[in-house]
Amino acid sequence: MSADEPRWLNDEERESWLALVSMLIRLSAALDTQLQRDAGISHFEYQVLSGLSMSPERTLRMSELALFADGSLSRLSHVIKRLEKRGWVYRTPDPADGRYTLAVLTDAGWEKVVATAPGHVAEVRRLLFDPLTKAQQRQLREIGHRVNSAIGPDEACPNQQS
Amino acid sequence: MSADEPRWLNDEERESWLALVSMLIRLSAALDTQLQRDAGISHFEYQVLSGLSMSPERTLRMSELALFADGSLSRLSHVIKRLEKRGWVYRTPDPADGRYTLAVLTDAGWEKVVATAPGHVAEVRRLLFDPLTKAQQRQLREIGHRVNSAIGPDEACPNQQS
DNA sequence: AGGAGACGCTTGAACCGTCAAGCGACAACA
DNA sequence: TGTTGTCGCTTGACGGTTCAAGCGTCTCCT
């Protein structure tokens, strides 16, 4: 920690940063834990299923789904293979363009989302919204948008290969 | 997404939530990417090294270090083994109580932190603080504290075994 | 039509984290 | 001083993610 770097963090920023990093890690872990315990799926798997459930025809291209779920295409491919084995999803080539693969939520997959969502939402509410004031919730939304656009469209998403 | 669950999310909350989850994942990934690219270490490894560098004698018990770095003891043990092989850290039993293991930062480890920190701090600043107003930085710190205490001392940290 | 290249996705290997079992060191009690 | 229990940590196997290479499909250009 040598001195006089051009733009060092001051104490306030440092504290914000440590608090945020800790929140980042522990909130992720807490959401994962709840889903794993109550539904036997990871947070990423939940995002995949929930993303499909909100889409028209319960269908999305793999690449769109990867973007929505903030994961790499490779990771999504492995995960969809597992979800397929569990009977919640199936894949089919896009009739409009054979390069695309469509992921489709089955009825069983829909049921899974319906059964899982309330508990998950309750946990999000308990850990994230209940402790905050209305004003903080508004600020948080704005902060999220600003940081997300600072990160850039895809800077952090290792979605493009090599 | 069936209706009238007791405490469903409204549109504003929903948007806050999606923004935050996305920020959560992408910010973690962005910080990891920067460190991996510029220093060849993971964010967790950085937290470990940086935690030691800020401690008296550059020394910390494994369990304290795990708490600081928000990771399990098992994970820390594996990571320290790797950092030991790279010559940045060594372990020694606590002379005061043989059950504890002390992790100590070597000179090479200190150099590594000094070389790595400025770039990392710059990235944190670029992605997290620069896009926010002073007021939002203050809010973020407060939000972090509130959410962290909602998660509880260790609810999300799988630091205790079995 | 045919070839080159771009695109979307998949695959297998290597790596990392988690989980459960187990080890040595210490404390409490007989 | 044993014995029992707890504590802090380590270990190996397992499961998931990443990385790089490769496949099939489509587009563009001649």
Automatic annotation (TrEMBL), chains A, B:
Pfam families: MarR_2. It comes from the Bacteria. SUPFAM superfamilies: Winged helix' DNA-binding domain. Residues 17-149 form the HTH marR-type domain. Residues 1-26 form the PH domain. The lineage of its organism: Bacteria, Bacillati, Actinomycetota, Actinomycetes, Kitasatosporales. Gene3D superfamilies: Winged helix-like DNA-binding domain superfamily/Winged helix DNA-binding domain (1.10.10.10). It comes from Streptantibioticus ferralitis. This is MarR family transcriptional regulator. Coiled coil: none annotated. PROSITE patterns: HTH_MARR_2, PH_DOMAIN.
